[in-house]
Specification:
mainly alpha; Glycosyltransferase; 70% helix; globular
Length: 489
C-alpha cells in the first residue's frame, strides 16, 4: 500500500515522467493481481482501480459491488471513512458508459462528502481541505499542472507522511516550467503587438494571453514549445476571424471572405473589405511561416491537413452567419452537426498536432479525418458547456441560436429542462473520453491533447464563459499557471 500511495503522490505532483519505468513495472504487477487480490478495503480498492484506469488498464468496476448491502445500497459504515469515500469519489470519475455501479458511487460519495463538510464532521483539517477542493474541481477534469500546484501548496505539505525531497522536486519542476512559459508568452506578446490586429479591429476580442493559456493547458511540456507557439497564434487569429463572422461582417461580404479562404491565395486580399484584410493576411502569413519551419523538419505533409481543417471551420462560420441573417432556428440535430465544427475543437486539435514531435505521424492526421470519438466527445463538452453558461449573453450580443434555444423550440421545453439534457450529454461525453483513453487507438500523448482540450473547458466554463468575459475562473487559472510561482509554506 505504501508503494501505491507513493505512485499516487508522484502522479499528483506531475513528476511521474522521472519514474516512468518504475511506475510501469509496479502497475503491471498491480494489474496482474487486481482480480485475485481480495483486499476490499474502501480506500485501497478505489485507489488501485483509479491508478490502473488512469494508465489505460481496462479493469472491471464490478469489485465495487462488494461495498453494497443486501438491499443494493452502499453500506452505511463506509460513510465514516472519509479518506476512503474521497478515494471512491476520485475513482468514480473514470467511469465509462454502462458502469452503473460507478454512477451510483459518484452520487453516493458526492452527497455524503458534501454533508460531512456542511456538518463539520471531518476532524482532519487537511482532509477537509482536500474534500472541499475535490468537490469544487474533480481531479479527473482538472488540468494536471493546476491540480499539481494546488496539491503541492495546500495538500501534500500538510500530510504527515509527505516526502520532502519529492515535494522539493515538484516545486522546482513547476517553477522551471512556469519560467519557460513566461518567456514563451513574452515572445508571443511581442508578435501579437507587432501584428496589430487588436488595434486595427476594435470590435474583435483581444485575447492573446488567454489563447496561450489554452495551449499551455493542452500540452505544457518543454518539448512542445513550437506546438504551443503555433496553436496560441492560431487561436488568437481565429478568435478575431470568429468575431468578423459573428459580430461585424455583412452576409455578402462574409461569402467573399469565405471564398478567399477557400482559394487560400494572398492575391485575394484586394477583393476583401478593408476590415477583413488584416485577419486574412495574418492567418495566411502564419501558415506560410509554419510551412517554412516544417519544411526544415521534413514534416511539411502536416500543413495541407491543417489548411483543410481551417477551411472546414470557416465554412461552418459562414453557415451560422447565414442562419442568423435568415433568423433561422435549426433543429437540434442540424445545430449539433454544425456546432461540433464551429466550436473549433476539431480544427484546433488538428492544428495542435502540427508542431509536435515524432509521436505525430501522417497516421495521426488521417485518424483526425475519421472524426475520432475522443475528439467528438471533447467537442461536445466544449459546445454544450458553452451553450449552458453563455447562450443568454450571446443572444443579447446577436448570435445564431444556441443548442438551448434549439432544444426549447423543438421540444416546447423550459430552459431548465434543456440544461438538464445538455448536462447529461456532457456527462456521457466524459465517459466516452474515459473509454477512448482505455482503447489506446493512438499513442497516449496524442489522446492526451484531445483530453486536455476538454479539461480546459471544465476549468473555465463551469460557471460562465470565462474566455469571452475574461471571468474569474480564467484569471485564477492564468495567475496560478503563469504568474505566481510555488513558494515554500
Amino acid at each position: 500500500m505504501q508503494q501505491l500511495n507513493l505512485i499516487d503522490e508522484i502522479q499528483r505532483l506531475c513528476v511521474a515522467h522521472h519514474f516512468e519505468d518504475d511506475i510501469k513495472e509496479a502497475l503491471e504487477r498491480l494489474y496482474a493481481s487486481f482480480h485475485s487480490d481480495h483486499d476490499d478495503n474502501l480506500y485501497s480498492l478505489a485507489l488501485r482501480f483509479r491508478l490502473l484506469r488512469q494508465e489505460g488498464y481496462n479493469i472491471s468496476a464490478e469489485r465495487f459491488n462488494k461495498l453494497k448491502d443486501e438491499k443494493g445500497n452502499f453500506n452505511e459504515c463506509l460513510i465514516a471513512d472519509v479518506r476512503g469515500m474521497l478515494s471512491l469519489y476520485d475513482a468514480s470519475q473514470l467511469r465509462i458508459r454502462g458502469e452503473e455501479i460507478l454512477d451510483e458511487a459518484l452520487a453516493f460519495t458526492t452527497a455524503q462528502l458534501s454533508k460531512s463538510l456542511e456538518t463539520g464532521t471531518i476532524t482532519s483539517i487537511p482532509l477537509a481541505a482536500q474534500v472541499s477542493h475535490a468537490l469544487k474541481q474533480q481531479m479527473r477534469k482538472n488540468l494536471p499542472w493546476l491540480e499539481a500546484k494546488h496539491y503541492m501548496m495546500h495538500i501534500y505539505p500538510e500530510m504527515a507522511s509527505h516526502n520532502k525531497t519529492l515535494l522539493k522536486l515538484a516545486r522546482l519542476e513547476f517553477n522551471l516550467l512556469q519560467s519557460m512559459h513566461r518567456k514563451e508568452l513574452s515572445v508571443l506578446t511581442r508578435y501579437w503587438k507587432d501584428l496589430g490586429l487588436a488595434a486595427k479591429l476594435s470590435f474583435a476580442r483581444d485575447r492573446l494571453v488567454e489563447c496561450y493559456f489554452w495551449s499551455v493547458g493542452s500540452y505544457p511540456e518543454p518539448e512542445n514549445c513550437l506546438a504551443r507557439s503555433i496553436l496560441s497564434r492560431l487561436i488568437a487569429i481565429t478568435t478575431v476571424i470568429d468575431d468578423v463572422y459573428d459580430a461585424f461582417g455583412l452576409i455578402d461580404e462574409l461569402k467573399v471572405f469565405t471564398d478567399a479562404f477557400e482559394r487560400w491565395d494572398m492575391s485575394c486580399i484586394n477583393q476583401l473589405p478593408q476590415y477583413m484584410q488584416p485577419s486574412y493576411e495574418a492567418l495566411l502569413d502564419l501558415f506560410r511561416e509554419v510551412e517554412d519551419e516544417l519544411k526544415k523538419q521534413g514534416r511539411i505533409y502536416r500543413v495541407p491537413y491543417a489548411i483543410e481543417s481551417m477551411k472546414c471551420l470557416l465554412r461552418g462560420y459562414l453557415k451560422e452567419a447565414q442562419w442568423f441573417s435568415q433568423k433561422y432556428v435549426p433543429t437540434l440535430e442540424e445545430h449539433r452537426e454544425l456546432s461540433l465544427v464551429t466550436c473549433t475543437y476539431p480544427t484546433l486539435i488538428t492544428i495542435a498536432y502540427v508542431g509536435m514531435g515524432d509521436v505525430v505521424t501522417k497516421e495521426t492526421f488521417d485518424w483526425m479525418l475519421t472524426n475520432p470519438k475522443i475528439v467528438e466527445a471533447s467537442s461536445i463538452v466544449s459546445r454544450f458547456m458553452d451553450d449552458i453558461v453563455g447562450h443568454k449573453f450571446e443572444q443579447k450580443r446577436g448570435h445564431p441560436a444556441s443548442g438551448i434555444e434549439c432544444y426549447v423550440k423543438q421540444n416546447g421545453a423550459s430552459e431548465e429542462e434543456a440544461y438538464e439534457v445538455f448536462t447529461e450529454l456532457i456527462v456521457n461525453a466524459w465517459k466516452d473520453i474515459n473509454e477512448e483513453c482505455l482503447k489506446k487507438s493512438m499513442p497516449k500523448q496524442i489522446l492526451e491533447v484531445a483530453f486536455n482540450f476538454a479539461r480546459v473547458m471544465d476549468v473555465l466554463y463551469k460557471v460562465e464563459d470565462s474566455f469571452t468575459l475574461a471571468g474569474k475562473a480564467l484569471i485564477h487559472a492564468i495567475t496560478a499557471m503563469l504568474i505566481d510561482p510555488v513558494r515554500e509554506n
